[in-house]
Amino acid sequence: KGYAPIRQDYEDFYTRRMYYRIHDAFNRPIASAPNSEMKVLERTSTVVGGANGTQGLELTGGQKDVLNLGSYNYLGFAARDDYCTPRVLDTLKECGWSTCASRTQAGSSPIHRQLERAIADFLGKEDAIVLGMGFATNSMILPALIGKGSLIISDALNHASIVAGVRGSGAKVKVFEHNNPDSLEAVLRNAIAQGQPRSGRAWKKVLIVTEGIFSMEGEACELAGIVAVAKKYKAYVFLDEAHSIGALGKTGRGITEHAGVSTSDIDVMMGTFTKSFGAAGGYIASSRAVVQHLRDTSPAHISATAMSPPVAQQIISALTLIQGRDDVGDGRGQRKMDQLKQNANFFREGLEGMGLNVLGDQDSPVMPIMLFQPAKIPAFSRLCLQRGVAVVVVGFPATPLLSARCRICISASHTRAQLERALEVIDEVADLCGLKHFPQTK
Ligand code: PMP
């Protein structure tokens, strides 16, 4: 009685939060798993860390190596690399771990500006700003860009960090049907016609917010359709490329390159360094005026400790390889990007060939396998782990009740033999769980 219905954006935020709880309950966080292999405690089946060590956890049982199909280490840069790692160690010796100050106090060092210039040039934007955390890049920058009297139109399945940012902005939020430009247009047309609540005045700004690859669906954004609607209604576009930068497009420039959309049509390009770059932090690349405004006003720049210099060096080095700059790395960056696509398409084809229901698009390194029934979540994950393959599983309320899934992430550092072995395991487990020959949902 008297309760307003839960708005979809709140609901989304809530369900995304629950996803992390479910993930924790069933699978335990895959703590820092830089390589394609990781270690698990045999007795508890708890994943404890990457191939480089046990991350300081106390071990009570024996260990065994398992194949990691759950981390976002798309290009394999989170592992040791003979171009990146020595440079990171040199920076560590020279600058230490932390600036222990924000960018506007004593925390700005030339390496931050070098990284910002490199990202802006890579994306063909006038300038960029980098922050120490990807989540904070969305949740803190969106409120600095837009506020009361403005309108945000957000994809129904946008990430929790975006939901936090749009809610914190004070702007009116409307949600459009996931990845559907027609729904975007309908919602936008309606909201523009109505204007601001009560006053009916025109919105100060209208911002469309979407992602390059959706992390729970593995789908590439319908960017061309979304940009066309944005142009028609003179709305701004904010694009989160956490999963697509470095992973999509022939030269790793993300969803814009993949979809044939010019970066000049995207007003605010956001991304994280925690996936393809194997590092930490986030960026915003945009016009000089927008980036300057963020430098002048965003508490995430003014009041938060600057990105760690060795982290900045890791990103600069990985980006140098991705761009094949200075003739370094024998074209290794390009080979990694090609390998990622080959691996992803090989694995997707293998899963589909088994008659499994697999979501997502060609070239996407994220591929959810539909389990449907929630009861299959723990069974699928444990049976895989017993056979040496660690996966992430997701269910209600992060997904509709009967849309539980296992979310596979492929890396360029997976070998063909590892992927073949993983397909054998999934084939066997899918039989045990009765997952084959469901009608395709695509
Ligand atoms: N945006 C999206 C789409 C994400 O999936 C994530 C996290 N995986 C983030 C932002 C937050 O990034 P980070 O983990 O680097 O803080």
**Given the helix and strand composition, which structural class is it?**
alpha/beta
SSE pattern: HEEEHHEHEHEHEHEHEEHHHHEHEEEH
Rounded average pLDDT: 87
Number of domains: 2
Q: What value does the Rg take, in angstroms?
A: 22 Å
CATH-derived topology of the largest domain: Aspartate Aminotransferase, domain 2
Bound molecules: 4'-deoxy-4'-aminopyridoxal-5'-phosphate
Q: Terminal Cα separation, in Å? A: 40 Å
Number of strands: 14
Query: Count of helical segments?
Result: 14
Question: Are there runs of 5+ residues with pLDDT below 50, and where?
Answer: 1-34, 42-61
**Shape descriptor:** globular
Strand content: 15-25%
* Major sheet characteristics: 7 strands, mixed
- Assigned CATH superfamily of the largest domain: Type I PLP-dependent aspartate aminotransferase-like (Major domain)
Architecture overview:
The longest helix has 22 residues. The protein contains 14 helices and 14 strands. Strand 7, helix 7 and strand 8 form a beta-alpha-beta unit. It folds into two domains: 141 residues, Aspartate Aminotransferase, domain 1 (Alpha-Beta Complex); 243 residues, Aspartate Aminotransferase, domain 2 (3-Layer(aba) Sandwich), CATH 3.40.640.10. It is globular. The two termini are 40 Å apart. It has 442 residues and is α/β, with parallel strands linked by helices. Bound molecules: 4'-deoxy-4'-aminopyridoxal-5'-phosphate (PMP). The site of 4'-deoxy-4'-aminopyridoxal-5'-phosphate (PMP) has 14 residues, from helix 4.
